Amino acid sequence: MQTNEMIKSNIEQGLTTLGIEFGSTRIKAVLINTDHEPIAVGAYDWENSLIDGIWTYSEEEIWAGLQGCYKNLVEEVKAKYGVTITKLAGLGFSAMMHGYLAFDEKDTLLVPFRTWRNNITGQASQKLIKLFNYNVPQRFSIAHLYQAILNNEEHVDKIKFFTTLAGFVHWKLSGEKVLGIGDASGMFPIDINTKDYNEKMLADFDAHIADKNYPWSIREILPKVLVAGENAGYLTAEGAKLLDPTGTLQAGTPMCPPEGDAGTGMVATNTVTKRTGNVSAGTSVFAMIVLERDLSKVYEELDMVTTPAGDLVAMAHSNNCTTDLNSWISLFHECLTSFGVKVDANELFSTLYNKALEGDADCGGLLAYCYHSGEHITGFTEGRPLFVRKSDSKFNLANFIRVHLSTALGAMKTGLDILTKEENVTIEQILGHGGLFKTKGVGQTIMANAIGAPVTVMETAGEGGAWGIALLADYMNNKGNLSLDEYLSTKVFKNSVAETIAPTKEGIEGFETFMTRYRNGLAIEQSAIDNLK
């Protein structure tokens, strides 16, 4: 670990690397030293707005957020080390994947930014799945473009370029219309052999819309695809002023390909190697598994994207995870308060989570659904949180907490079962991060038994995607002959502190018994939706 004097020297010499990620509620900047350690953090809170039925962020909010985040970082560097950032060794941007930002020949935004959160492209998604024989979720940028075509929106024939949020910010700071392959895979399907957009699908799409006579082809308006380690341009003078309006930051910093938050999450958790994956579990939960080969057919339950190096990834994404469990724990807190008992919220969570480990492996016959919202993996457009039991179920506190922890993984497990049971995909290790794993050992144990593979939690996993994109910028400058997974394993995570929990035979069998009950009970969930309007 570097001393403050060493870090100060790194900053003064321009040897530090900066990563900035635009999340859905927070923009975060992480500055790393030459040992890959985060040495300063900046943040800016923001929220999307629902305008005319579209979830969006304005251009003004994007730049205000970027500048506010960077300013906050600069202030922390000044306070901690007594120096000012004037130059950087590398720079990278990451953001929420997918969505739609379309521009005309004058680089004017044609319609407000349509984020991944919008569920307005169902018609386009289904038509593209049939056209490509490939899963195209509603979030994908091509689904947004095609829906605009189906809607006969006036702006479509004026499009000269469209991209993601990360691609937009990178373009404005570097002048380069490029995108990292992981983010690009959420715009349009990728051919993992060529590390570029799928040529046949590009041609199929152009042929499919030929009657519209647009003055562009799909290839012409998509950003160029780059893989991890490639140079994606340099910070221009205009870009430096856009990031740092004070004019202190110098231009010329090399920039890595802009990436999506899924890819930077894989980098930050060292899960870019085949047969590995990561699970992010909090309000929602998703698993990303790096595959060794293409799947045999299309599964709408699984999104196909790539690592920043271009390896194929299957994503099982569930909208619902810990929200309902948090509500139950709040109820317990209210009960205790009613008796005059004061208990720390963190202590209550920890105590109840650990109680779950005393429960039966199959949750004692209890059943719950945490569906606050719809769940596409199991086929629901709406949700109703439910708790159900038979009269002879083992109804006690341990099983009650355990069933709510288990059901938080139920929809995601349904998607992963397609990989492991139908496609015979081998998962050797999962790295977990997010709120579910905050109580040591509990979420890991439930997850390991659900997946049937060891689950590891690292101390650095909490640094997130801003650290991940900073690492990608450093990799660009210092990769040598190393692949991305070799660089991460030997340079970044070699001495990382981690704890791994392996599944048990009893735990796996118990979770499978619970999942049988979960699948059989989906009709109860549907009945609740039908009858509780």
From TrEMBL:
List, alphabetically, the InterPro entries matched. ATPase_NBD (IPR043129), FGGY_C (IPR018485), FGGY_Carb_Kinase (IPR050406), FGGY_N (IPR018484)
What sequence ranges are listed for the domain Carbohydrate kinase FGGY C-terminal? Answer: 278-473
Keywords carried by this UniProt record: Kinase, Transferase
- Record domain Carbohydrate kinase FGGY N-terminal: where: 17-243
Instruction: Note whether tRNA processing occurs among the keywords.
Output: no
Asked if the keyword Protease belongs to this entry, the reply reads no
Family membership noted in the UniProt record:
Belongs to the FGGY kinase family.
Per the UniProt entry, what species is this protein from, by scientific name? Answer: Megamonas funiformis YIT 11815
Question: Taxonomic classification, please?
Answer: Bacteria, Bacillati, Bacillota, Negativicutes, Selenomonadales
Q: Report the protein name in the record.
A: ATPase
